[in-house]
Design goal:
alpha/beta, seven-stranded parallel beta sheet, five-stranded parallel beta sheet, globular
Length: 307
């Protein structure tokens, strides 16, 4: 059997995962481009593969159809918006995720973005490198009210970190766990309440048809003029043009964005505004998270291939 591995960080800090695949009798094909594969690249490499460990590379119906031997897809991460689940189901292809493997790392990065935006650390650093030592007044984080949209493993970890800063936590999740929320002092709130009341809003929702452009011009208009918006989930959750308009007009204090609809983003305004901190979809890119995801994805793939 032959398998393809596409994520750039897969095995980087834990090369033993490749030995594990080979010990299971699998021939390993690797993504050698040092980038995200496009559809044509995926179709070429997957043509005679039985399984794949995939990152954010496209796995739509066309790609799946080009892989007649494919039996298992192991997602290196948790978001499956790049995988056509219906096409996989129709073929009987098993799809797995590495649930919980990177939740601590992503929560850390969400908090890092919150602090960086609130305290303007990137702007201050840039000015200091120009030997401009003027003081820049920023905003407080301690004691703020944070709204967490999506209270899964990552959202819960963000809540825990926020409470370490004395924040009041409001949250929304379609699968609400009242027992957990009560035990951890988290208040249930509708999205509109979060948009209107919160000083900081952190997105941790999956990208689905019902969450696409979850935050658009109308939702941004509800937010406080000194609100901070952070997205470490998926780019399609935010109407990016509307967000850029709001940031340009000073209708928000700032934003920290690690996930874009197109990466790198195409709108040049992202690279000129000083009230936004950009990330390269790297929230889960720590050695520990990569090791956890790599091992879990490897185990999932071997299991689903029946080895």
């Amino acid at each position: 059997m032959k398998v393809l591995t596409t994520p750039r960080s897969y095995g980087k800090t834990d090369p033993q995962v490749f030995d594990t695949l080979r010990d299971a009798g699998l021939e390993v094909v690797r993504n050698e481009t040092d980038g995200i594969l496009d559809k044509e690249g995926m179709k070429a490499l997957l043509a005679d593969c039985d399984g794949i460990i995939v990152g954010v590379d496209p796995m739509d119906a066309e790609v799946i159809a080009a892989a007649p031997k494919l039996k298992a897809i192991a997602k290196y991460g948790v978001g499956v918006d790049n995988i056509d689940l219906e096409a996989a189901k129709a073929r009987g292809i098993k799809v797995s995720r590495t649930v919980g493997a990177n939740s601590e790392a992503v929560a850390d990065y969400a908090m890092a973005l919150i602090l960086a935006v609130a305290r303007k650390t990137v702007l201050i650093d840039s000015r200091c490198r120009q030997k401009d030592w003027k003081k820049i007044t920023t905003r407080d984080v301690t004691g703020a009210t944070i709204g967490i949209l999506g209270l899964g493993a990552i959202g819960r970890n963000v809540a825990q970190r926020a409470q370490g800063f004395g924040m009041t936590v409001l949250a929304h999740d379609p699968f609400w766990n009242e027992e957990y929320a009560a035990a951890h002092h988290i208040t249930k709130a509708a999205p509109e309440e979060i948009f209107r009341q919160c000083d900081i809003i952190s997105l941790h929702l999956p990208l689905m048809p019902e969450t696409e452009n979850f935050i658009g011009a109308a939702e941004l208009a509800m937010m406080k003029p000194d609100a901070i918006l952070v997205n470490t989930a998926r780019g399609g959750l935010i109407d990016e043009s509307a967000l850029l308009d709001a940031l340009e007009a000073g209708k928000l204090y700032g934003a920290g964005i690690d996930a874009f609809s197109s990466e790198p983003p195409k709108d040049p305004r992202w690279f000129t505004l000083d009230n936004v901190v950009l990330g390269s979809h790297c929230a889960a890119s720590t050695s520990g998270a990569a090791r956890n995801m790599g091992r879990m994805a490897t185990e999932n793939l071997i299991r689903d291939l029946g080895l």
